[in-house]
Amino acid sequence: TMLPSSAVGVCHVLVLVLCLSAAEDFDWAKNDRGSFYYGTFPAGFSWGAGGSAYQTEGAWDTDGKGLSIWDVFSHKKGKVQQNDTGDSSCEGYYKVKDDVSLMKELKLNHYRFSISWPRLIPTGIKSDHVNEKGIQYYDHLIDHLLENKITPIVTLYHWDLPQVLQEKYGGWQNISMVNHFNEFANLCFERFGNRVKYWITFNNPWSVAVEGYETGEHAPGLKLRGTGAYKAAHHMIKAHAKVWHTYDTQWRAKQKGLIGISLSGDWGEPVDISNQKDIEAAERYVQFYLGWFATPIFHGDYPQVMKDFIGRKSAQQGLGTSRLPAFSPQEKSYMKGTCDFLGIGHFTTRYITQKNNPSGRSSSYFTDRDLAELVDPRWPDPGSEWLYSVPWGFRRLLNFVKTQYGNPMIYVTENGVSEKMLCTELCDDWRIHYYKDYINEMLKAIRDGVNVKGYTAWSLLDKFEWDEGYSERFGLYYVDFRNKNKPRYPKASVQFYKRIISSNGFPNQREVENWRRKAVETCSSSNQLLAAEEQRSSAANILRLIHDPLTSHMEMVTEIVVPTVCTLSILLSAIFLMFLLRRRN
Ligand code: NOJ
Questions:
Q1: 97-125: b or e for each residue (b if 16 or more CB lie within 10 Å)?
Q2: Is the dihedral of CA 188, 189, 191, 193 positive or negative?
Q3: What is the CA(329)–ligand 1 centre distance, in A?
Q4: Residues with CB under 6 A from ligand 1
């Protein structure tokens, strides 16, 4: 009897070793930053752009929509830059046709948007009331996309929790969110699932947890340091798993769609790749970011390093249990493998080095990691303070995902760059560079064997950028927010991205250089147009302030009298000329 049991033991060890080596063969020490790669993407690669409900729709209290935590948060003074709100934003709610034609102009294969939970279920609780007008809006959007051969990729939760759920239960601090979210998701599958085949449960739950419940920079603005983020994340992961199972058991056979999650992850690169401590710190950075959500979903539990670090620090603080909640064995097996595709939102990279944080009384997600983040001052930082352009980090992250989670199917759900300038600038040469280099690193990752199926530029339009308000513009299209009609203007990057899409990659150096030159050339004329338009509207605004009747008088003079007089005089002189010529003959 000794022999078989030791054989079983050996087998176990072997399996364990195999699993470990399969999961950990990411090569930290090898960072190949080779030159630009000319080549194309696999046939059928899907090109898209994205946005989200609260950031673009506006119509915050229209047609029976309930309040979300972002409506309430942005209406409080001092929460958002300039006290901006998403009340009207891009007025996307009224501009479905216009916006779909912008997507057609780009020849997009897919468009990623999110459904506002309180627009469908005003209180968040399905048994209270379902708002048919809200359903109609998304029906209209989905149908219009499909008529134009654009595949909808739909996010169920892009941060706009119904306010009632926050007030009644404390939002994601409360386990009851799991069932409410599941009912909302089920409603979406029932009403839209015949047409929508790509579902994303959560967008960037890291931000919801850390910025919503730890730092309080985002709605609901809670500062529950050291515990709030972990608890919120725990409930979101459970909610994700539940919704995946709902789809899997009730809808998949009939609707044949896929359901995934969209995780954000900055890349963490060891400051010194020959220093084991730095490598461990960088790995911790990535595990606390992407791994926090991906590891439970793919492997059934939190990353070991999170359990170790948070557990040890909790003990040092004299707490009886870890601040990181634990999953039961049943929950682990229920969670494992609940992902048909992985959405990746990626923007930037940090250098990471080891740094001990003595665990005092105050604890936080940030100090739990024992590391310091650094940036290279030579990295370009065109827009947002946090967003440095480091294209090679993207390839590293994608390869990390491949090795850690068994080469899953990936859709890049967000990638892009902002500009901070408030002035008019359609010639966004730096954005062209960003897209060109990041998309190229994604191409290299595909050559490395990473299973990337699609790419989503973030974002189609300039829009409400959360606590930064309208001060950061991520759009391919510029939106003039000062004008009530919110007109859209193409930036140069529209022309450039369009070429990448139509060539399905980068044919050769000469051509790609040409695209860039042409894009920048053509944009300067639209730039002038927009500048003139803005001058006109701000001049009109000033006049309107001084004296309203005067403005309308001025407008009548410039818009009606002057053009009419000009046209008439041209006509008259033409007739006169003809008359003269005839007489000569
Ligand atoms: C990720 C968020 O999901 C998105 O809504 C936001 O616009 C981008 N980050 C840029 O900050």
A1: eebbebbeebebbbbbbbbbbbbbbbbbb
A2: positive
A3: 34
A4: 52, 55, 203-204, 264, 345, 414, 465, 474
Q: Catalytic one among 211, 414, 468, 472?
A: 414
The pLDDT tens digits of the residues spanning 318-377 come to 999 999 999 999 999 999 999 999 999 999 999 999 999 876 767 899 999 999 999 998
Residue 183 φ/ψ, nearest 5 degrees: -70, -40
CA of 165 to the centre of ligand 1 (A): 23
Counting from 1 in the atom list of ligand 1, the atom nearest the Cα of 204 is 3
Structural domain includes residue 304: yes
State the residue range of the domain holding 578.
548-585
- 237 domain-assigned: yes
pLDDT tens, position by position, 88-131: 999 999 999 999 999 999 999 999 999 999 999 999 999 999 99
414 is catalytic: yes
Give the position, in ligand 1's atom list, of the atom nearest the Cα of 52: 5
End-to-end Cα separation, the chain, in angstroms: 124
CATH code of residue 127: 3.20.20.80
Q: Are residues 491 and 560 in the same domain?
A: no
Peptide bond into 220 cis (omega under 30): yes
Residue 483 and residue 580 in one domain = no
Region 540-555: mean pLDDT is: 51
Whether 408 and 554 map to the same domain: the answer is no
262-295 tens-digit pLDDT: 999 999 999 999 999 999 999 999 999 999 999 9
> How high is the pLDDT of residue 541?
59
* 441/53 Cα distance (integer angstroms): 29
What is the domain count for the chain?
A: 2
pTM: 0.88
Bridge-based pairing of strands 505-506 and 198-203 is unpaired
The answer to whether residue 1 is domain-embedded is no
**Nearest ligand 1 atom to alpha carbon 416:** 10
Same domain, 526 and 585: no
* pLDDT of the residue at 20: 45
| Per-residue buried b or exposed e for 53-71, using 16+ beta carbons within 10 Å of the residue's own CB | bbbbbbbbeeeebbbbbbb
| CA of 460 relative to ligand 1 center, distance in Å | 12
Regarding whether 395 and 277 lie in a shared domain, the answer is yes
Which ligand 1 atom is nearest residue 55's CA?
5
Q: Which protein residue's CA is at the shortest distance from atom 2 of ligand 1?
A: 204
Last residue of a domain, one of 516, 536, 556: 536
Q: Which residue among 465, 467, 479 is best mutated to probe the pocket of ligand 1, counting the most ligand atoms within 8 A of its Cβ? A: 465
202 falls within a domain: yes
501, 568: one domain: no
